[in-house]
Write a structure and sequence with these properties.
Layout: H1 13-21, H2 26-33, H3 37-47, H4 50-91, H5 95-116, H6 130-142, H7 147-163
Helix pairs in contact: 4-5, 5-7, 6-7
The chain binds zinc ion.
Zinc ion is lined by residues 5, 7-8, 43, 47.
Length: 165
């Protein structure tokens, strides 16, 4: 005689089924409803429609993919905007605004790098280091009486920043 299924006979069977299909881990369900993991697995494989489990799993994977893509897409949009503004500021010879654009673009790049895993969260990057940023500003300010030199230095600094991750 087959053993009666603890899950099927459980007063909260609907919630248990929903948790299994929803991908809640067996450990958590087991603790919450006082059912052994073995009983859960038996119920899952013998009494739950596989199609429902697979469909829910596929749905979750797709939703996660969408979230990741959306965040990355938004970061790329911001980067494009920062580059646009940077180009405009450069065209109009507005060095201060151009430098701000460089900084924004650089932050977008770092953020994108973190999303894609290309940048370690705690990687030390001299270009975003506060002292280096201050140092850049100091040079730019000191060159105020020499606009040509100032523009040349700013362009080189922007180039360094662009190569940063
Ligand atoms: Zn069952």
């Amino acid at each position: 005689m087959a053993r009666p299924c603890l899950c099927c006979n459980h007063p909260e069977r609907d919630k248990i089924d929903a948790a299994i299909v929803g991908g809640v881990n067996a450990e958590a369900i087991s603790k919450q409803y006082g059912i052994t993991k073995q009983a859960l697995w038996r119920h899952r494989s013998a009494h739950l429609p596989k199609a429902a489990i697979e469909a829910a799993k596929a749905e979750r994977a797709e939703a996660e993919g969408r979230r990741g893509a959306t965040l990355l897409e938004q970061a790329h949009e911001l980067l494009d905007k920062a580059r646009d503004l940077l180009a405009k500021a450069e065209d109009s010879g507005d060095i201060q605004t151009a430098l701000r654009g460089v900084k924004e673009a650089r932050e977008c790049l770092v953020f994108i790098g973190r999303l894609t895993g290309d940048v370690e969260p705690d990687a030390i990057n001299i270009v975003v280091h506060a002292q280096f940023v201050n140092f850049q500003q100091l040079i730019i300010d000191a060159l105020a009486p020499y606009p040509d030199a100032r523009a040349a230095v700013a362009a080189r600094l922007a180039h360094i920043s662009e190569q940063a991750p």
